Amino acid sequence: MIPAAFDYVRAGSAAEAIDLIGQYGDEAKFLAGGHSLVPAMKLRLAQPTVLVDIGRVADLSYIREDGDQIAIGALTRHMDVENSPVLAEHVPLLAHAAGHVGDPQVRHRGTIGGSLAHADPASDLPATTLALGATYVAQGPNGTREIAAADFYHGYFTSALAPDEMLTEIRVPKMGGAGWSFQKFNRRAQDWAIVGVAAWQRGSECGVGLVNMASTPVLASSVASAVAGGASAADAAEAAAAEADPQADLNASVDYRVHLAKVLTRRALEASAG
Amino acid sequence: MDITVTINGKTHTADVEPRTLLVQFIREQAGLTGTNIGCDTSSCGACSVHIDGEAAKSCTLLAVQADGCSITTIEGMAGDDGSLHPMQQAFMENHGLQCGYCTPGMVMAATSLLAENPNPTEEEVRLGLEGNLCRCTGYHNIVQSVLACAKS
Ligand SMILES: Cc1cc2nc3c(=O)[nH]c(=O)nc-3n(C[C@H](O)[C@H](O)[C@H](O)COP(=O)(O)OP(=O)(O)OC[C@H]3O[C@@H](n4cnc5c(N)ncnc54)[C@H](O)[C@@H]3O)c2cc1C
Ligand code: FES
Ligand code: FES
Question: A140, B61, B89, B119: which has the highest count of C-beta atoms within 10 A?
Answer without folding.
Answer: B61
